[in-house]
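We close this part of the discussion by returning to an individual protein. Part of our work consisted of pairing the sequence of a single chain with a tokenised description of its backbone. No coordinates are needed to read the tokens, only the vocabulary itself. The amino acid sequence and the backbone structure tokens for this protein are reproduced below:
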Amino acid sequence: MSNGIGLLIFIALSILMIFFTVAQRKKPFTLRELAAFQRLRRAIGLAVEDGKGIHVTLGRGTVLSENLASALIGLGVLKRLTTVALIGDHPPIATSGEGSLMLLAQDCLRGTHRRLGLEPQNLPQKALLAGTTPYAYAVGSQMELRDGRVAVDLLIGHFGNEAALICDVAHQQGNLIIAGSDDLTAQSVFAAAATHPLYGEEVYAAVAYMDGDALQRASLQTQDVARWVIILFLIIASVVKLVGL
């Protein structure tokens, strides 16, 4: 019985995804505005004008773990930021605390350069393995912030307490800090230390907010519909329980 219900829910959500994707391609809908991404769009333009760069910190999530989802979101954000930042003189710098993430970041930068008809240069200096332990990773990421070349810091991925050290140096440099994580400890750090912390699903919606394609935007719309259906179901179930039916 439960398997049948699960299958019906999957089919219904798939149909909604297809419907909203087609609708998006015909007439894109406007996403609910989030202050973090409004500020980020302005900050990227100012950074390009000032000849400064963007630092994307991908965290320590591993490819073969449950933390992969947040790491992939960070890579998606890196891809879109690279497309914009290549207008200026300083493409984004990506740091990570795990070797496979470094390779994926380098491949992301390489693909974006070639898609724009540019030859990628100095990729090992643009996508770095900052450290293989939490605090070595934090110190390595700090080194990219101390010379004043960076104006915007994005921390999206799996972090722990070491995120506080990265945010501290970014504050000292006067950088805009937008941060989100799948880890509760890192979320509490970002709530206190980031200029604009991302909470919960806001992290996973980051790519769609960074001018995502129709499918990504449709997924957000499908989630909104599913959320309202669940809310209505809970309300109706509560009323039925109260009246004793």
Notes: The first strand starts at residue 53 and ends at 59. The chain has a mean pLDDT of 81. DSSP finds eleven helices and six strands in the chain.
